[in-house]
Structures are given as structure tokens and as C-alpha cells.
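ok so for the tutorial part 2 we go from a plain amino acid sequence to predicted C-alpha cells. step 1 is just haveing the sequence, like this:
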Amino acid sequence: MSAPRILISEVGPRDGLQSIKNVMPTAAKLRWISALAAAGLKEIEVGSFVPPKLLPQMADIREVVLHALSIPGLHVAVLAPNLRGCKGAFEAGVHKVTLPVSVTDEHSIANVRKTTAQMI
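step 2 — the prediction. this is what the C-alpha cells look like for a chain of 120 residues:
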């Protein structure tokens, strides 16, 4: 009998930054991601593929992904709320894309301007 496997997927570089006003410099993001990986995390959601005018904090997502992909053994994840973002993410070489699907239409519309059914 094997022990259960648990995967911790750190989302701080995306979720922790997306709602703050001051944009973290790219170099600081890269150091943060490297430190998380050095601490033993195997999967990190490094950012979002969204229009920079909507979320300036993620304007450097391609550079952040490129850096994360250079870390041996790291599974690189991102969030993408639409097909355009998903295409950009896969073109950048990520391993995983999270698509936000809300339980309520109200939250979904506020978050991605689409109903839950439209997101599905």
C-alpha cells in the first residue's frame, strides 16, 4: 500500500499580487518564485494571462513564465480566464492552465464578465 500523495500548488505569485495596486518589479517576482521552488514547492501558479490594462501586475507574465520554466522540476501553472489567455499560456510553454469557474453567476460576472454557464 502506498502513501497518499498530496500536491501543494502555491498561488501566491498570482493570487497574492493580483489585487494590490503597487506593481512588484519583475526581478522581485523571479526571486520570489525561485525561493518558493528552492523551499521544495513542485507546482507554482506564477501569474495570469490577462490584458495588462486590466491587471498591470501581470504585464510581465511571459518573462515570469520563462524564468519559472528554467527551474528544474518545477511544474509551472497560470490562470487564464478566456481562450485568448489560454492560447498565450500554452504558447509560452506552461504545464497547466487554471480556468476560473464560479459557482454563482454574480461572482462569475464580477470576476470574468461571463456567467458560470458561459465559462463552462
